[in-house]
């Protein structure tokens, strides 16, 4: 028996080459449609902010300068999204055994938090202004806010068409086809297919052996992972960024409306009320995203599995030889990738392999990608 | 996708999940209801303006006349339905009398305390009031949620009574003494004056009374409406009778007193608006909606919208734009006095909305179950597991009491709690002093401190939450909350540092004048508070480390209690021992480290790596301290030397310091959240994996995943492939023992004997594919042999 070991010490990271690294990042950004869209939108936003800053300095207007700084701050959200979409494609290594796919969830979370901060600040400022409305110079407000509105509208369209379509197209289709075989037939055969299956499986694995299966499995697994990463990465990041842009757009709409109201009717209170409403809207719209990402980060049982799981437990417990089921943990790695572990207590004379494969089947049908089952044999 | 398959698995047996009433197609009615309520608010505001000009009884008479006219026109109570008997006529007469009295009270209350408050008080539906009364006067109120709702309601009424400083103006302006229109109003006034409250407060009491009467009245008239043949017919007849009732009174009134109204013709439009919006439309839509929806949903949406629109109108009714909009039916003379929108009213409106929402929500018993399947007889089976029961609302006082007890139990959280109290007290003193001396700087600083306290509250809450038991949904427990809270705190600090940085850059360019004399005492006070905090935390930390060890030890105990029940006897003495040992050593290492270094920042970083939650809060306190030190130093510089630039430089320095100190924390939290192998155990784990490889009978392992779930839980999963003739249980035990030594305390080991098959089924290709593949391979084999005959 030859000892197999992973020699990770011998792997030396290549010399740090900034140029190559940056170009690599660029390539990986431009390779994927989502991150490409993000990148272009970021460039657009940044250039807008720079133009605003330069114009502000040139015309020496403090309002424009502070607005451009606000836009820079906004860009951090996009930057976070972009970084996450690059990071989430990194391969898994020794330390990060699941890869970096969770970066997307984290990015969504961070975006959500930033938005909450922003909403809070806007709200408090709105309250302050509602108590004593300052006189706003509305003549310059309108063009700037309209420009911002246009930029944000472009963003919305880009993400609606590119991002959303993409995630639907590739993500869904892909996972569908992966599952189709097992799922559509699974149930009808479920009952009597067992014994049949068992015989076949038994005969085979002894012939074809382990080494082959092993390497193949490993490979396939990695492949699967990265594919999922690509397909699923769009959702959370995009949701966060999209919400951010929508919030900005709403902000500019509010500014435009309040500017019009102030100019034409002299309703000075329109401005704080608008900003408070916008802040509330942002707050409300961000809550689902935050809730979801906190749930994922806290290893919550995925809500989409929540209803299917008790039924699966029931089916597992009905398998022959299974006494009980305990310590079930199911959690979400990233969008649509669910991982589960559970322990089964089985009778001493039960066929472990059969139970293992059946359990795997049952949970695969429910949509769990990676399953770890520990089989404990009950004492006599 | 999930839904489809689970549906299939149930053999077409409906939707899984919480059992709920289908709520489709109701949107139309809800929109209609909301619209009607909005119009009703408009109508009541209009009615208030009318009542300034028209006498109360005349007003009611005209409204009743108009509504009787339209209702009779629509319903035709005489030509349709069965004839009304004499006994029923008497009952209708009583109904009309009571109805008149209630509307008299209602509109009198309207004249007293304005349309906004009337809407808030009187527009509660029967469901809300009934559940309120049942909470107040019966023992079986329906749980703590309802009690909470009732408490909100009472708070709202009390707010209206006490904190609404509107009465002064209204009283002076509107009711000069000795000018009362009629005997009735005079009597009411004397009653209110006798009770010793102001007019507008009397109006509030009156309206509450009228509300109770109204609900009782509705309950009582239910039977009569069935007898007569429908609520609509009863309403029409009752309106008619009340017109006849009020007729003589109005005639007498109009003969004895001279009217204030110049031209009745200009009042026709407002009256029609009031009649339609307040009486007729509302009545019809409400009856339709109560048929189509549950009364509770109806009540919830209706009351919410009417309160919101009342608030809006309360603010905007006297605005020039609304004047323009309703120029057509504006009453000719318009008094300038209005009931203003005060803070008390807004607060009470919020409380009314909350209470209406809570009180009208149906009791949730028997609705939270999850459909898990069907029994052999075909009856659905529901699952009421742990959290479904936990979700039923807890009693708030008890919750607070329990969490306080939990906080005070542990040393760390107790420290945070005391510090929070100190901070809050300081803040309030500052705010109070600021309000008293009317200095804006102090007030804004107080608010800033209040904002800072939120970080402490979050830390405290996280410390509390980490101790919650694992539920079905959060199967690993809530341990991650502390990491998340550390992360959020870190981000928070980053944002603050960013803003401070920006501002200091702006000030560097253009240093503003600062009045320094006020700054020093406040910042010294802040510094003292923060220093206390630092002392508290550093103490808590040194204790916390040892406590942490104990804690995880506890955990491991529970764990092997668990494994004991499965009865593999040998290993657990081993487990417990080695585990406890390893933890003890790490704790000891930290202590010596601290003793050696004695330097503050080193300790800080130790904190960061070992106790993320704490370091988050701690950093916050540290940042505050640095801030106060900086302010003091810069104040001294400015006062002594007149260097105005010292202030922005100081804040720049502080911002950079905060930024730098936050980065390690954030990096650490990120690594945990990204499911990294815990860095301090990485070496051990690699050694353990090599050991696993060497176990007899193990061929290889794959997919080893280990991650740090919380400070004390390290979870792990691994697949182990073994040769086919080995005892699986022995392998599981050995692998578990090895990994436990390495510090993994929540482990799942899957032992595989037939690698290929397992992979295929495990990697989501599914049952059928494997079946097909094996069949194909088999047929090929036979084919090659040439012995395969169909």
Architecture overview:
- The complex is a heterodimer of chains A (380) and B (790).
- Chain A has 380 residues and is mostly helical.
- Chain A folds into 2 domains: 18-162 and 232-298, Cation efflux protein transmembrane domain (Alpha-lytic protease prodomain-like), CATH 1.20.1510.10; 304-377, Cation efflux protein, cytoplasmic domain (Alpha-Beta Plaits), CATH 3.30.70.1350.
- In chain A, 73% of the residues lie in helices and 8% in strands.
- Chain A has 11 helices and 3 strands.
- Chain A has a 3-stranded mixed beta sheet with strand order 1-2-3.
- In chain A, helix 1 crosses helix 2 (33-59) and helix 4 (103-131) runs antiparallel to helix 8.
- In chain B, strand 4 and strand 5 (714-722) form a beta hairpin.
- Chain B contains 28 helices and 6 strands.
- Chain B has 3 domains: 24-255 and 267-324, no CATH class; 408-540 and 611-674, Up-down Bundle (Alpha-lytic protease prodomain-like); 680-781, Cation efflux protein, cytoplasmic domain (Alpha-Beta Plaits, 2-Layer Sandwich).
- Mean pLDDT of chain B is 69; it is low at 1-22, 167-180, 328-337, 364-368, 385-392, 540-613 and 780-790.
- In chain B, helix 4 packs antiparallel against helix 9 (199-228) and helix 12 runs antiparallel to helix 14.
- Chain B starts with a helix and ends in a 5-residue tail after the last helix.
- Chain B is mainly α and 790 residues long.
- At the A-B interface, helix 4, helix 5, helix 6, helix 7 and helix 9 of A face helix 1, strand 2, helix 19, helix 25 and strand 4 of B.
- Chain A: Residues 38-298 form the Cation efflux protein transmembrane domain.
- Chain A: It comes from Limosa lapponica baueri.
- Chain A: GO terms for molecular function: zinc ion transmembrane transporter activity.
- Chain A: InterPro entries: Cation_efflux, Cation_efflux_TM, Cation_efflux_TMD_sf, Msc2-like.
- Chain A: This is Zinc transporter.
- Chain B: InterPro entries: Cation_efflux, Cation_efflux_TM, Cation_efflux_TMD_sf, Msc2-like.
